[in-house]
Amino acid sequence: MAIKKMVQAFILGALVVVSSGCTIDVQKHYTREASLYHTGHFQELAEEIESKSAKDPTYLNEYSLYVKWLCEAYSRLKKYNKLFECVRRINKEQEWKGQDWGITSEWEIDAWIDLSDYKKALDKANRWYVGVSQIVKNAKPDPESRICWPVCLPERFLVKPLGLLSLAHALSGNRAEALKFAN
Predict the structure, then answer these.
(1) Helices 80-97 and 64-77: angle between axes, nearest 10 degrees
(2) Which residue in 143, 123, 127 sits closest to 135, CA to CA?
(3) What's the pLDDT tens digit per position in 121-131?
(4) Is residue 32 a contact partner of residue 48, using CB atoms and an 8 Å limit?
């Protein structure tokens, strides 16, 4: 019994030591922007990134993750003029790199739905759904990948496009199409 308690105490102590080391390392690299993003302080996040990019025009070029966070902040804050400008920046970068993962699609579709422009929302949602469907269809298992294949099936990437496509159809008055994509 005493040995069991000693083993448990040793394991607990080892976990504390290992996790505190990881925490310290993560904190060292954790920026104010990351903290604001992960805690949902989107107004402060937008102000922080805007302030830093105003002082240093290369700031957003060097930290492309911050551009994505800024776009999401604008989306959450419903600052659509700034959102669309931010989205154009990301899309231009993706075109330059030959990528189109549709990272901005969700924000754009949400904006068009909020602005009651269901035609634009449907157009964007359809293109996003078709694009993601192609990626899912052509996905190949990669045992060397960090992706949790096949546990996290690629079909999960269709959930958001299908949901927004269904919502856009429903709000535009097309109940049959909304139900088709909802199921």
Answers:
(1) 150
(2) 127
(3) 999 998 888 88
(4) yes
